[in-house]
Fold this protein.
Amino acid sequence: MCGITKAFVRDLPVLESVDFDIAAGEIHSLLGENGAGKSTLMNVLVGLVRPDAGTLVVAGEPVDFATFGPAQAARCGIGMVHQHSALVPAMTVVENFAFGDPDGGWLFRPARRRSAVQALAERFDFDVPLDRRVEDLSVGERQRAEILRVLGRGARVLILDEPTSVLTPGEARRLFTSLRRLRDSGHSVVFISHKLGEVEEIADRVTVLRRGRTVGVLDVAEADAPTLGRKMLGRDVAPLDRTGRPPVAAASGPPLLQLNGLAAPGATEASRLRGLSLAVRAGEIVGVAGIDGNGQRELEEVLAGVRAPSSGELRIRGEAVTPGARSLRAAGLAHLSGDRETSGLIAGFSLAENLILKGSYDDRRFFRRGCLDLGAARTAARDVAARYGVVPNDPDADIAVLSGGNAQKLTVARELDGDPAVLVAVNPARGLDVGAARFVHERLIERRAAGAAILLISTELDEVMALSDRLVALVRGTFVPIPAGADRAEIGAILLGGTVT
Amino acid sequence: MTVRDERLVDVARASFAIVLALVVVAAALALLGFEPGPALAALARGSLGGTAALTATVLKTTPLLLTGLGVALCFRCGVWNIGAEGQLLVGALCATAVATRLLPDAPAVVLLPAVVLSGALGGFAVAAVAGALRASRGVSEVISTILLNFVAIQLVALAVHGPLQEAAGAYPKSDPFPVAALLPAIGRWHLGIAVAALLAVATEVLLFRTAIGFRMRAVGLAPRAARFAGISPERIGLATLGLGGAFAGLAGAFEVAGVTGQLYEGISPGHGYTAIAVALLAKLHPLAVIPSALFFGALEAGAGAMQREAGVPASVTQVVQGIAILVSATFAVAARRRPGAAAAGAASAAAEEAT
């Protein structure tokens, strides 16, 4: 693959002329942070995403992207196992093999199919119960079935998207053994990961992606984990200007936000919150670093009042607050989410309507005796647009036409204008260009100077390191302390589970 | 493009959909071996030509307007209420039970409000069953409202063959309503027509000028974002479905108390289903439901005339109505994709990609 470029949103490329090559009989790791473009690059390779520019050559044959889809990729011997299962839960493993097989013919012959699958499984030492329904399988078994299915379609290049993220250490070990066997039989394996340790263990070569660009191709024999970590996280990112920031004088201030043994169910076992305790004082930014899927989303939802904690309590200004979006807001907590499209703003609503979105129960400026005062909302929206430089400044414009940066300015305006005592900011600059990101960060620093307690949850290590007075890591639903003055590599090791086993 | 411009485009699109529907209907008539010219002329005469025709159109429009409003309200809130038909039928059933069995001798001051309210309550109750299942157990309202339609059809059949059957016992229909239970009327124009028109305005106000309407629209556009704003999509969805059901129930009560004066099977020729097309053609705008319902009402009234005057058999007029509904609704729905929505979709795809 050569010079692959892709932008889903204009002028915001996910991939910028990325080169990638894989040889027969190697395990090649694709390493990078979340959002570095790993999955997108591989989706290009399997024909799910059409690049804006670039070329792809498979076994010496150039590929025409205009006609390159998943079926063509499969014919070229390229197969991918995605993070989310593509198997039909209600079918058995053998039935799943027959399902959608282009060479399967129109008759389902279970015995014949079963013996073919069995032979394949034995050859590469994949232990899968073939006659059980997929929904009854463990996650590891499901993954093995999925790999087998891709192999069964004749894949010579097998792409695994963060395969170990769902596995126990023992299962990961077994997966590695099978992958080595695959390599020794001449298959190529692309192993997408952001875990340095396992890349070092399994891969022959590594391509490191950072923010949509290739930053290096290395032989693993020549590179150790710290080198890879530096490449992956990058050193030369311009640090946020810290000048003008008062020292952490407020550390003695009263705690405005307290989490006491907060536990909550999670989307996955790894993201379950297991008794989180933390205090954020007036005038400080506490950064929660971590890799997606370790409970970030769950913590955000609990703090925003849309996920009920199973135990523990939440205190704002020392007072225990009943969880709920309205009560938390009334207590003085504001929630600034980078996930604008699904949790912050409503596409189809105007600027004015989005501005007053959170006040429909108690904001007397816009809602009186059950009536909506759209005139007041419009005036407020015009004022906010002017002060925060939101373009367009038409209060009736659908926010779907706003760029990410302008949409986030509107969110910032809504959340910060009431001078909240506590601010929970979650990936607040996600998807923004440098200028817009800087704007959001400066507002956070402003609020800190004004005496707000800010909890910054972000998967961007640069962001939390630059903004926070103190750092903790959220790893598998637990807070892990990060010592003051820890450098990027040390923090990286903690995030990747280096200190907890 | 300003909001006003968008509205104009919407109106132009809907008008075009209507014209297109008529063209397709003409073509279909020609294909079936009828002369489209005289047939369409009969359709126009029967719906718009003269006082009697206009009255017929307005009478057909009223139930479509009320059920269309209920459906539009639900769709705005992201609740796919396909059960207006059943809600209408149970509304008619409840109104009949009150008028002919529970309070047949009450004076009009008592009986009339009781008949109308019981109709609304009946529709509300049927919708609330689906709403409660949805809010508590996550049962898809699409399925439950459709299935409740069949329950309602059978309930009406049961009633007119059993407890509500006329005293004479000859036909499967109810006793005629006592005079005190009939809606006041000028000629055939009953009070329900005015009420329906007023409710269209009220619904517009509810959706766009009140806090509850604001929450309904927020839930319909983005339930997750609404939740972050402290709004419960379950509760709002339940309330909206109930209200939509009450509108349909009211339509049923007005039919029996304003038009037929009694209940029988087949009291509704599928008003509750046409309501979906009515709401879609109006692009879910309550005020726009008025002209949209008028169009479908005219079609229904005119179809009768087409049958009588141009010799087009009843089955063919039904085909014609079906085609008109299909073409106009399809066009209205297809036009709902907007560039803004596409951009938002791409942005969310990119955001998903980044995880």
Remarks:
- The radius of gyration of chain B is 21 Å.
- The interface with chain A takes residues 2-3, 208-215, 217-218, 221-222, 224-231, 338, 340-341, 343-344, 346-351, 353-355 of chain B (CB under 8 Å).
- Residues 108-137 of chain B form the longest helix (30 residues).
